[in-house]
């Protein structure tokens, strides 16, 4: 990926869509949510961190904040059908059919998305504990 300058090409494409950092972060969130639905977390982090971290740093985002945002996105994806592996594991353990579980979970998905937006756009939420412990 580095030899082919893929992170640079994606960065240029995202920056070409908008100069507004809020829009670019929203686009990154959407991509990571979709990736989280279809891909397991570890390969997604390994593939997409070198692509999106330079963009986030170019926007002035702290790498720790970006990492927390990325993990939150991918965790929400793990709980989201059609592939959400964590949801299927929970359903198989409890014996509940996934069709019966999706509708009651909608308010929780809404809460997760609101929390994700707060994590993304209010960096103090993510960075409070590292700053409190003197790690930053």
UniProtKB/TrEMBL annotation:
It is found in: Cell inner membrane. It comes from Escherichia coli. The chain crosses the membrane at residues 21-48, 68-93, 105-129. The keyword Transmembrane helix applies. Keywords: Cell inner membrane, Cell membrane, Membrane, Transmembrane, Transmembrane helix, Transport. It holds the Pfam family DctM. It is a multi-pass membrane protein. One of its GO terms (cellular component) is plasma membrane. This is Putative TRAP-type C4-dicarboxylate transport system,large permease. The keyword Transmembrane applies. Part of the tripartite ATP-independent periplasmic (TRAP) transport system. Residues 1-125 form the TRAP C4-dicarboxylate transport system permease DctM subunit domain. GO terms for molecular function: transmembrane transporter activity. The lineage of its organism: Bacteria, Pseudomonadati, Pseudomonadota, Gammaproteobacteria, Enterobacterales.
């Amino acid at each position: 990926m580095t030899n082919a300058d893929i992170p640079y090409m994606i960065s240029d494409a995202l920056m070409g869509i908008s100069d507004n950092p809020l829009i670019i972060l929203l686009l990154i969130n959407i991509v990571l949510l979709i990736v989280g639905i279809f891909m397991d977390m570890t390969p997604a982090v390994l593939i997409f961190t070198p692509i999106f971290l330079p963009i986030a740093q170019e926007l002035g985002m702290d790498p720790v904040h970006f990492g927390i945002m990325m993990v939150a996105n991918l965790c929400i994806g793990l709980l989201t059908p059609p592939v959400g592996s964590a949801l299927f594991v929970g359903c198989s353990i409890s014996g509940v059919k996934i069709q019966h579980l999706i509708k009651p979970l909608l308010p929780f998905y809404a809460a997760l998305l609101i929390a994700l937006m707060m994590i993304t756009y209010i960096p103090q939420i993510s960075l409070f504990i590292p700053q409190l412990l003197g790690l930053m």
